[in-house]
Design brief:
This protein has helices spanning 11-20, 34-43, 58-68, 82-90, 103-111, 123-131, 147-155, 176-180, 196-200, 204-222, and strands spanning 22-26, 48-52, 73-77, 95-97, 115-117, 119-120, 136-139, 164-167, 188-190. It is of the alpha/beta class. Strand 6 (119-120), helix 6 and strand 7 (136-139) form a beta-alpha-beta unit.
Amino acid sequence: MQPIEQRAMSPEIIKKIDEAGVIAVLVIDDVKHAVPVAKALLKGGVNAIELTLRTPAAIEAARAIKSEVPEITLGIGTVLTIGQVKAAAELGADFAVSPGCNPRVIAAAREHDLSFAPGIMTPTDIEIAIEQGCRVLKYFPAESSGGMNHLTNMVAPYQYLGLKFIPLGGLSMANAASYLESPIITAIGGSWIAKRPLIQAENWEAITENAKEVRKLITEIRK
């Protein structure tokens, strides 16, 4: 059997995520922090983000980044509803992700031409995603689910389908390499790079240094 037909994410976005190697996960409470944090990440070599819809400022923050920092590959996270899919598509997000695997949300993303990666943790999740034409999947929560060992064993029956994963949840510089070294990982998700308190404190220098550190690791592993 050939690799599954990819209907949920465009080849262009798949390529951008793979080249990025890391997606910085952001929680932004104030719109004024959106552009500075994006620029701080970009300065450190991280050009892909997942901006989570967990605060009232999230949509406007995403819109500001899309407008003023176009070099960023902008993802919208914690997408749980069809309405959120529509909002992400309308602001021009490059892709969206969810913590779970909801066929209705995946279908809505396809309807709005929004590249989408659903969250998986079990073989059943994977099979639902496959049926919906998804090839890039978010593995969440990664560490508490058994880390790379669990993912490797779980994916074995499906590996011939060419699936790729974005692990998120419990990742850090201490364990990032164990994920990045696997050929089934397209990019890791990192909330530690620009933690919420760092953004709130406007500590852009620390965020840039965190970004540089993970960029160096990715370069060393994928050279």
